[in-house]
Amino acid sequence: MEAEAREAVGMLAVDVGNTVTRLGLFADDGLAATWEVTTPEHLTIDEARLVVAGFHDALERRAAGGEPPLRAGDSIVSCVVPDLTGVWASALLAECGRRPLVVGPGLKTGIKMRYRDPAEVGPDRVADLAAALADYGGPLVVVDLGTTTNFEVIDAEGTFRGGIIAPGLALGAKALAQAAARLPHVELKAPTSVIGTSTREAVQAGVVMGEVARIDGLVDKVEAELGCEAEVVVTGADAAAMAALLAHEARADDTLTLRGLHRLYELNRKKP
Description:
26% strand, Type_III_PanK, 272 residues, Nucleotidyltransferase, domain 5, cytoplasm, ATP binding, alpha/beta, six-stranded mixed beta sheet, five-stranded mixed beta sheet, 8 helices
């Protein structure tokens, strides 16, 4: 009991993506630590609990001197893999002692939407929008890099106008290698020249620089429809590297989704 009394209590945000699961532990002064693991195809409740326990163990090792380690006392989860939503909800209940908030229909978001069916907007996209509106306002284009590349468009009045969903960088590279037997799997980094002088460089140019051109081109079309320029924020996998390659001035924000989950938590959790 004495050890438990010395623990500082925080709020755990879990963003379960198709490829990667990210955890962020928030203290009173904001995001204190993050943790990232691969999202498996199948996961048991005990395995999800081990992920949280591993995060807690890492935080305990990082605690300096007599500083109490930070542990999760409450939680929120966003999950785009339907089969894993219940698994993570049960695991977080067991680890944190309180039923987690699950991002989905019925949750207050504070987001004004011009979307035909707001229930269709994925939980990760809702989290991105919640943080983007709070921290940036509009007009804004959020580009979230992952299994899919998601574009979220916020107009000058701070209304979510809609978005774009395209295959992500890794998905495009995987499809190319699978469909063309003689093309290799390549490291997803920008080549030194757009004109490749080897098959490997040519694939990198097509996949990586093709993604850059697609993002720039779609942002141009979004701005044309909005009738104004928009700030561009890039989040997700390798956000800083991609933002640096774009022709548009873009800000990299690696923790946007986790901060959005924290904001949704604050809007919805009733104080005990």
